[in-house]
């Protein structure tokens, strides 16, 4: 039973480690690697909660650990990535502005944690930090083809959207096979295009995380179909 409780937390810690590695790659000038590690973190983040529910081992400890991991991988790491790829040219001001992203993200996470029992499962109040960090990572990947002003506008908008009260549709109640496969194919094609275009050597974690995520989606698809047949 104790091992079952550890499984979701292992994915959460993997998410946190991806955030740490992303910061390191960004500081070393390997921006594509840094961005892709954030995307890998998104994969792991989408798995820990589902595994906790599947194994019936949800806990307050897991939720708190997940929030701590999210602020690093989708708050601190994207802000460093944006600073090193664009805001660095504004000097100390750019560094200060980049630091606002994890501040807004932390506020959003804290508000979500205390209101999660009261909120609806059909929508989020404000943009989740996971989505915001992922959007910044993808913007960085296409940084050479997009005007720099777009990065500034999106960065600013995401900061305020995270703490806004705008209702964002939630996908939690949608069966995973309906959208998980599409997300996986999109990420796979995206990573392949970037690899062909840059010839960069991506972190070895991608060769572990991606197959695991695909296997997870396949398992969910099989169990979902079996449950549907049983209901019929």
UniProtKB/TrEMBL annotation:
<keyword id="KW-0812">Transmembrane</keyword>
<feature type="transmembrane region" description="Helical">
    <location>
        <begin position="179"/>
        <end position="198"/>
    </location>
</feature>
<dbReference type="GO" id="GO:0003882">
    <property type="term" value="F:CDP-diacylglycerol-serine O-phosphatidyltransferase activity"/>
</dbReference>
<feature type="transmembrane region" description="Helical">
    <location>
        <begin position="204"/>
        <end position="222"/>
    </location>
</feature>
<keyword id="KW-0808">Transferase</keyword>
<keyword id="KW-0594">Phospholipid biosynthesis</keyword>
<feature type="transmembrane region" description="Helical">
    <location>
        <begin position="149"/>
        <end position="167"/>
    </location>
</feature>
<protein>
    <recommendedName>
        <fullName>CDP-diacylglycerol--serine O-phosphatidyltransferase</fullName>
        <ecNumber>2.7.8.8</ecNumber>
    </recommendedName>
</protein>
<comment type="similarity">
    <text>Belongs to the CDP-alcohol phosphatidyltransferase class-I family.</text>
</comment>
<dbReference type="InterPro" id="IPR043130">
    <property type="entry name" value="CDP-OH_PTrfase_TM_dom"/>
</dbReference>
<keyword id="KW-1133">Transmembrane helix</keyword>
<feature type="transmembrane region" description="Helical">
    <location>
        <begin position="122"/>
        <end position="143"/>
    </location>
</feature>
<keyword id="KW-0443">Lipid metabolism</keyword>
<keyword id="KW-0472">Membrane</keyword>
<feature type="transmembrane region" description="Helical">
    <location>
        <begin position="92"/>
        <end position="110"/>
    </location>
</feature>
<dbReference type="InterPro" id="IPR004533">
    <property type="entry name" value="CDP-diaglyc--ser_O-PTrfase"/>
</dbReference>
<dbReference type="Pfam" id="PF01066">
    <property type="entry name" value="CDP-OH_P_transf"/>
</dbReference>
<dbReference type="InterPro" id="IPR000462">
    <property type="entry name" value="CDP-OH_P_trans"/>
</dbReference>
<dbReference type="InterPro" id="IPR048254">
    <property type="entry name" value="CDP_ALCOHOL_P_TRANSF_CS"/>
</dbReference>
<keyword id="KW-1208">Phospholipid metabolism</keyword>
<dbReference type="InterPro" id="IPR050324">
    <property type="entry name" value="CDP-alcohol_PTase-I"/>
</dbReference>
<keyword id="KW-0444">Lipid biosynthesis</keyword>
């Amino acid at each position: 039973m104790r091992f079952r409780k550890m499984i979701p937390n292992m994915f959460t810690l993997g998410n946190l480690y991806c955030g740490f590695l992303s910061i390191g790659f960004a500081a070393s000038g390997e921006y594509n690697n840094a961005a892709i590690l954030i995307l890998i973190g998104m994969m792991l983040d989408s798995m820990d909660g589902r595994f906790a529910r599947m194994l019936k081992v949800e806990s307050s400890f897991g939720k708190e650990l997940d929030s701590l991991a999210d602020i690093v991988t989708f708050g601190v790491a994207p802000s460093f990535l944006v600073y090193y790829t664009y805001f660095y040219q504004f000097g100390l001001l750019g560094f200060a502005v980049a630091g606002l992203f994890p501040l807004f993200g932390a506020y959003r996470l804290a508000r979500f944690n205390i209101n999660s029992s009261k909120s609806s499962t059909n929508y989020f109040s404000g943009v989740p930090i996971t989505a915001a960090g992922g959007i910044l990572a993808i913007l960085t990947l296409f940084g050479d083809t997009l005007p720099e002003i777009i990065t500034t506008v999106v960065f600013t908008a995401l900061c305020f959207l995270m703490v806004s009260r705008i209702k964002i549709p939630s996908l939690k109640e949608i069966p995973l096979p309906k959208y998980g496969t599409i997300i996986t194919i999109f990420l796979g094609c995206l990573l392949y295009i970037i690899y062909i275009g840059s010839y960069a050597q991506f972190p070895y974690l991608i060769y572990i995380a991606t197959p695991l995520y695909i296997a997870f989606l396949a398992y969910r698809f099989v169990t979902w179909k079996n449950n549907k047949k049983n209901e019929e």
